[in-house]
Fold this protein.
Amino acid sequence: MTNIDTKRETNFAVTLTPSNFGENTYVARVPRKTVTTDQILDLVVAHNKGIDRYQVAHSMELLKKEILEQAELGFSVDIMEICKLYLAPLHGVRSLTPEAETVTGFEARFAVNERLRKRLGAMTAAVTAVVDPAPQISLIENPVAKDNEPKDVLKATFSARITGRKLKVGGEGGGIFFVPAVMSENPGSGEIIPSQKEEDWIKVPSDFVTHNADRRLEFHLPRDLETGMPYFIAVRAAERHGVARKNPLTGISRVPVMVGA
């Protein structure tokens, strides 16, 4: 449930997601936080000392009943000068005798009041986060490790499990890859980083993938991995909802894993 602040203070902010239609452009979204009717009633009571909460709740129920009844009669309803509720058919009608047809199925639509539209148009908000649309790897583990074995060491020819977000793979060029770990060219850093030479990446064959979902991937390890070597794991998504991406997205694990014998 969304927490509410009776002091009328706000933490209103937006998130930015990189757009595929332009360089250095982002789609701004407002995170959806829903305030319930009970919370609205609590706010009314907090801001109007001495008011009867149950009387206000009863009045709201009466208003709701009348609004729904008028909508079901086919009227557009102006709801407290905030928005207008109106009906629209779910489907069009194809007929040689349209005047004899009966239209079945409607949906509710809302039009924002012009006064509210102007107020919202003048609002400003900070950016709370820039959302990375690429696959995000949270955990890599060996699901067949015994109690006395480390789960972060993968066993050659056995299986592995990845959990995270936006992991589902598919499409031309997409998949799961083992990326050799190499030393950074930064002198003296001693940092191990993923190899940028994609020709050295080892792809997990598609028929080795046993579970393919946004939150979890499970797969057998490729046969040509070197044991005793560290690898980063890359997940590349080349399609979305069955449609090929113009630019495939790649997420790489932050730390390497070892492949044991």
Notes: The first strand starts at residue 13 and ends at 18.
